[in-house]
Design a protein that fits this description.
Length: 460
């Protein structure tokens, strides 16, 4: 096969303007990730409207399981795709195919292993995630389906990462559009027609992910693609490099599980089931924003990795300047929307008790301040990850939704009550951004050529 023709669709990364390339990857990446978040929001809306607020809270408690699946797929997918894109940038097609096949084998095997272990201990796991006597039946019902069929989610997402890195972000987006469409249709059928309960909502998600994976498989039968399945033996060195580079993405998604469990536990303590129900509404909205910022990271990751392999330093710098400005602008718009439209956002999820509505409205107005900083943190984490500054990328992910958030959740509510819970994420995101800025300034002194370019991304 003529490998010089296999990566024709990647050559535009080197010839088109940086802004055009960024938009070409940004739009389908963000839309695709938003469609993934739609899957979660749709589950919430259908369950809330059909089964009520306690069932909605139960699904929310089980949500970290979805985050863990997603984390595994990003850990191996982003790690493997970063290595793969460097090979593509260096025109090393054979090596790129080997990395691709190796990564798919890893994610499939690891998902099945962990799902089997979790299924054996599913009730203690549900309690650990925050289930109480009211929500436990719903949590177990939702978890049972995800544990059996969740490998479809990890395979689809890993496919999506590699398809995007192989120069086809539009197909990656189309796959997630298909997944979202069938998830909506099947949720309605399983909940309102067949009355399957929350298990029906989980089943809809698994089937929809399977259909999305089938759509992505079409990429690998095209003649103009670089990536193909190839014979690939297990490599300890390649696995180690894949896990190392992808680790910040894994931690970021595990952080979502910690975030959800931490907020659920804090709300149970300070506001009871009312607080958990209010947080569940906000958490569905938060999943949309997380996917938006993750979409921005997904857009720049193939570009930064490819440019690094091709040694196109100036295009790498320009991409990051655009990405940081886009992330901040998006966060600002969403923050302003939260201030003026909080009541309407809550009403979209159903008619709840007045206590739940008021607490959720207050939460949106306080919590949304975190989006001013969160997008920049996501973008910088992706940059550090793609440029082998894994320690800093890991610090961003560990600090923002684990160390700092947990510390604030344990202390601030003693003075501010539930307002202290809502403010935990905005404060942790701000502190992390300040540490990123300090890191960039320090590097600008020791490595003028590299550090000043990164500093410009924050200051420009």
């Amino acid at each position: 096969m003529n490998t010089n023709q296999d990566h024709n669709q990647l050559l535009s990364l080197e010839t088109d303007s940086v802004g055009k390339v960024f938009v070409r990857y940004l739009v389908p990446s963000v839309i695709g990730m938003l469609m993934m978040s739609v899957n979660v929001v749709v589950d919430g809306i259908f369950v809330g409207q059909r089964l009520g607020e306690v069932a909605l809270a139960g699904v929310n408690v089980a949500f970290p399981l979805f985050s863990i699946y997603f984390a595994l797929s990003l850990w191996i997918g982003i790690g493997g795709a970063t290595i793969c894109s460097r090979h593509l940038g260096a025109k090393q097609i054979k090596e790129a195919r080997s990395v691709f096949t190796h990564s798919l084998t890893l994610i499939f095997g690891l998902t099945l292993l962990l799902a089997a272990l979790a299924f054996l201990f599913r009730e203690p796991l549900a309690v650990f995630l925050g289930a109480n006597d009211d929500t436990l039946p719903y949590v177990k019902e939702y978890m049972n389906v995800l544990l059996v069929g969740g490998f479809a989610i990890t395979v689809q997402n890993t496919f999506s990462v590699f398809v995007r890195n192989d120069g086809n972000p539009n197909l990656a987006m189309m796959s997630l559009l298909v997944t979202a469409f069938f998830n909506i249709v099947l949720n309605y059928v399983f909940l309102f027609v067949l009355d399957y309960g929350v298990a029906g909502s989980a089943l809809a998600l698994v089937i929809a992910a399977t259909l999305g994976a089938i759509v992505l498989s079409l990429h690998f039968v095209r003649k103009d693609t670089a990536l193909r399945f190839a014979v690939s033996r297990f490599s300890r060195e390649l696995a180690k490099e894949t896990f190392t580079i992808g680790f910040p993405s894994f931690v970021a998604e595990i952080g979502i599980a910690v975030f959800t469990a931490g907020y659920n536990m804090a709300m149970v303590r300070w506001a009871g089931t009312v607080g958990v129900s209010a947080f569940s509404i906000l958490n569905y909205i938060h999943s949309v924003m997380l996917m938006t910022f993750l979409g921005m990271g997904s857009a720049i990751q193939p570009l930064i990795s490819y440019y690094r392999g091709a040694k196109l330093v100036e295009r790498q710098k320009a991409t990051m300047r655009i990405a940081v400005r886009t992330a901040f602008g998006t966060g600002l718009v969403v923050f302003l929307i939260g201030l003026v439209a909080a009541h309407g956002i809550v009403a979209a999820f159903g008619s709840f008790a007045e206590e739940v509505q008021e607490l959720a409205v207050t939460g949106i107005r306080l919590f949304f301040a975190g989006y001013l900083f969160m997008g920049i943190n996501f973008v910088m984490m992706t940059y550090f990850q793609a440029t082998d500054q894994v320690r800093m990328a890991t610090w961003i992910t560990v600090a923002r939704e684990m160390l700092l958030m947990v510390a604030i959740l344990l202390t601030l509510p003693h003075w501010l009550g539930t307002s202290g819970i809502w403010l935990a994420i905005p404060l942790s995101e701000l502190i992390v951004l300040l540490t990123v800025y300090a890191y960039v300034r320090r590097r600008s002194r020791s490595l003028p050529a590299t550090g000043s370019s990164v500093r410009g991304k924050l200051e420009g």
